[in-house]
Amino acid sequence: MVDAVVAVQWLDGLQRTLEPYPGAYLALMIAALLIAAGLANWLTKRILLRGLRRLLQRLPGADSGRGSHLMRVIARLSNVVPSQVIASGVLLVPDLPERLVKIVVGLCTAWAVLTLALAVSHALDAANDLYERKPEARNKPIKGYLQVVKIVVYVAAGLSILATLLGVKLGPLVTGLGAATAVLMLIFQDTILSLVASVQISGDGRVRIGDWIEMPSQNADGDVIDIALHTITVQNFDKTITTIPTKKLVTESFKNWRGMQEAGGRRIKRALYLDQHSVGFLDAQDLAFLGQFALLGDYLQGKQQELAQWNDRLRQDGVAEVNSRRVTNLGTFRAYVERYLRSHPGIHTDMTLLVRQLQPTTEGLPLELYCFTRSTAWGEYEGVQSDIFDHLLAILPAFGLRVFQASSDAMLMAGQRQLGAAE
């Protein structure tokens, strides 16, 4: 109590000393208030937050991210301290217009409400991250419900801030807005839908700047270069620009290639169409020739041993030789392709790698390659894919196989021209 009296007396003495200088005392008090707010901010950020961070690092589970989530909530709440120092101190500054004091106090209160809303949002994110660590979270996600809570919190904070800045009570403001809701939704329908879509997109991160997205319904196939409230801008690979309404990314389907880029492998899913008439068994001469391939040596050796044991059992049982098993050129080629892919430096062998037959069609027997390249860059991907199929098309005759190709009248026309020239 004595200290407070001494402080007031000292301030009165200072004010009388500065009376010959108009505005000097007011400027000095404002500067002191700003210094006090800055000091409060420094103490909060440099001392309190650092101490809490060190304390949280010692708690169990800090490495799993719980401490970082809690620090974000505390960091948001710490921003309230300097604003409240200003709100309380501006009342002590003499000779300030009453309207200006109300404006400053209102702005500080609005800042505190906004900061509290952001802290609640971070707390909800932390709750969602903690919940997703549970086994049942995959089947029962709560992220959508938490996003609804976020919207309610932001709406409530916005109404509170608006009421504070306008100097009105929150109840009448809500009542007035409720009466105008129907008209506002009709006038600003597109804006409201775009706003909701933007919140969803930014919340779940389904689209980010730099993502490669593909949306045939909007003729979009390229990189996202801008995300605004009403539109998302995509630069297509042909250098044209497509603008997509933001709400379309919520109501319609599209493909985002970000997962492919983050995984570090791009899929090759392409088939060789083989002539089924070229499929047959390999004789001893063929086996000896193909056994010289380094990729097939162990395969053919193991296959011949397996078939020899099988056929020996058949002969011991007195079964006719026609029932014996033999090596086919197609099966051997499949084994060669798989080993070739696994030894290729451009193929990601840690991801799915298959060489399989598909249902035969009138265009031949599809032999599909399903694998992933190590590079996701478009040019390198196409180069690896082309090199692989160049090699396979060139080596097919070594296995006695042919590519199926629809016949044309080219050979017939060439023969007719040769016949006409001979006549």
CA(first)-CA(last) distance: 130 Å
Q: How is the biggest beta sheet arranged?
A: 5 strands, antiparallel
Shape: elongated
Strand content: 5-15%
Please give the oligomerization state of what you see.
single chain
Task: Strand order, main sheet: write it out.
Answer: 4-3-2-1-5
Supply Rg.
38 Å
Q: Which segments are poorly predicted (pLDDT under 50) over 5 or more consecutive residues? A: none
How would you state the average pLDDT, rounded? 78
The string of secondary-structure elements, in order, is: HHHHHHHHHEEEEHEHEHHHEEHH
The level of helicity is: 55-70%
Detail the topology: elements first, then pairings:
Elements: H1 2-17, H2 24-57, H3 66-78, H4 80-89, H5 98-132, H6 143-166, H7 170-179, H8 181-187, H9 189-204, E1 212-215, E2 220-227, E3 231-236, E4 241-245, H10 248-251, E5 255-256, H11 258-263, E6 266-274, H12 284-290, H13 297-316, H14 329-343, E7 354-357, E8 365-373, H15 378-395, H16 410-422
Antiparallel strand pairs: 1-2, 1-5, 2-3, 3-4, 6-8, 7-8
Helix pairs in contact: 2-3, 2-4, 3-5, 4-5, 5-6
Can you give me a brief rundown of this structure?
By secondary structure, the protein is α+β, with helices and mostly antiparallel strands. It has 16 helices and 8 strands. It has helices at 2-17, 24-57, 66-78, 80-89, 98-132, 143-166, 170-179, 181-187, 189-204, 248-251, 258-263, 284-290, 297-316, 329-343, 378-395, 410-422, and strands at 212-215, 220-227, 231-236, 241-245, 255-256, 266-274, 354-357, 365-373.
